[in-house]
Amino acid sequence: MLTNHAKLMKFFMTSGEIIGRKKLQKMIYILKNCDIPFEEKFEFHFYGPYSEELTLRMEELCNLGFIAESKEKKSNYYQYRYTMTRAGEDFLNHSQVVLPPFEDKIDKMKDQSSRFLELVSTILYFKHLSKSEVEEKIQIVKKSSNYTATDIESAWQFIAELQGNEQVQA
Amino acid sequence: MAYKDEQLNEEKVFKDPVHRYVHVKDRVIWDLISAAEFQRLRRIKQLGTSYLTFHGAEHSRFNHSLGVYEIVRRILFNFEGREHWNKEQRLLCLCAALLHDLGHGPFSHSFEKVFKLDHEEFTRKIILGNTEVNHILQRVDKGFPQKVADVINKTYEDKLVISLISSQIDADRMDYLQRDAYFTGVSYGHFDMERILRVMRPLEDQVVIKSSGMHAVEDYIMSRYQMYWQVYFHPVSRSAEVILSKILHRAKDLYQQDYTFSLKPTHFLSFFTGDVSLEDYLRLDESIVLYYFQMWADEADPILSDLCVRFTNRKLFKYIEFNPNLQMEEWMELYSLFEKAGMDPEYYLVVDSSSDLPYDFYRPGEEGERLPIHLLMPNQELKELSRQSDIVESISGKKRTDHKLYFPMDFVEALPDDEPEKARIETLLGLSQEK
């Protein structure tokens, strides 16, 4: 029961507090691309890969009292923080869900900005293309984000580290 | 004259119950409508299993696709001559609008979940593969099929074009809300679309709404909210969806266990093995699926047979409201009781959540999460809708999730009264008081 909810709870048990919905979206997408079997469906949106299913599932976890959501006002928008509750821990204790280890990946991602993770997830979205085609695509779909060549190179490097490869294939 | 500019001698019209008429003058559009892959959409229902709840909801993705095309055609007519609008993009927009749902399969949502498919991927494959649609688009320009696929995939360079087909207030939603309301017969889902089209303004990378049109947009958001609860999340349709999904799981499981089907499931084989070609995908429509369900009703496997009889004859599961937080222990006990009573809980005790459905509400969200609806203020500033509208703000803050527990009431009732599990199952499901 609620296997996909339990997988997300496993994520929160490992990650601790997550600040920002955008960061959460990108982290789950990146983990999914590292073969962690999250089943939320993602589509490409204005700000890169986004899952409405994940948004709704998070809302369910909050309404069930498994995740605590707090909202803080920033200059022109709201930012959300998520943490696992005691009820969430109890739920997870009843769950049989097993996921491959991903602690090291979470540690790496938590240190990054959501803007950088947006770039990483966008690169992963176009993983079926060659490296040069991906970079060309980034310039098209992320025109307004003004990512520099250094940003893009760091993102490739980051992906290689996450996936445990020394070199990203061109 | 270049194919892309060719016009029909006389404008063709399709009578349409929602938009009155769908107008076609471009040769390319006319040819696309006649393509086999587009005609296939006549055999895919827009609302999947909802026809088992709302008997009128038999409309197809063909109807809807024509409707989305017509809305975009009207929007572009209003955009003519406006700043930021490049009329060279007109045919691209119309083709993307017409073809945006081309990859939907039979009972799309359940099929995608059970067989791990993605209809967007099949839309791309149809547009870029060796198909009639692709050959028509290629005649416009060699690179044109890729452009259409990019718009539908939301990776095209011009985000204004994308936002017409896919955003929080796009032609897709405006058509399906009105069309689904019309065919289900509900009184929700209506809003003043003409007014919204008149106040839409193109900006560099999105469509925005002139602030004077805010009340028309409020009406649209309200009808979206009501349609979700009254139609899309209807518990009876969800029951049918649960059974449909369990049929597909059962058939796949049996195939993997080398079960011998009375009727070889030829059309499903590649779905069971996870190797679906474009040709296989296009061959399987809802009439084929329903044929198999009728045949499987006579299968020797009691679970597959029972589920198919239920779906075909509308003998659906009953449900109770369920809170996984407060009722976890009860659920575990029920699971074990169902097993002991001979009802396989994997098929006959199902928790269904609102996030299992493919519909969304309007959410302003966080910055950089998802593009909201923007109002264009008189001073040319952009303001997010819920910051200006009390109605939208109040809807955005409502609890909108639920979980239901589905089970076959007839099986529970048929358990012998002296079977020790029966009384406890009835108590846990809250059925005892009803007697």
TrEMBL record, chain A:
The name on file for this protein is: YwgA family protein
Source organism of this protein record: Paraliobacillus quinghaiensis
Q: What is the lineage of its organism?
A: Bacteria, Bacillati, Bacillota, Bacilli, Bacillales
Per UniProt, what is the name of the gene that codes for the protein in this document? ywgA
From TrEMBL, chain B:
Note the Gene3D superfamilies from the entry.
Hypothetical protein af1432
Annotated CDD domains = HDc (cd00077)
Q: Which domain of life is it from?
A: Bacteria
Q: Which organism is it from?
A: Paraliobacillus quinghaiensis
Mention any Pfam family matching this sequence. Answer: HD_assoc_2
Kindly list the GO molecular function terms attached to this UniProt entry: dGTPase activity
Record's protein name: HD domain-containing protein
Name all HD domain ranges.
61-177
Cite the InterPro entries for this sequence. Answer: dGTPase-like, HD/PDEase_dom, HD_assoc_2, HD_domain
An example GO BP is:
dGTP catabolic process
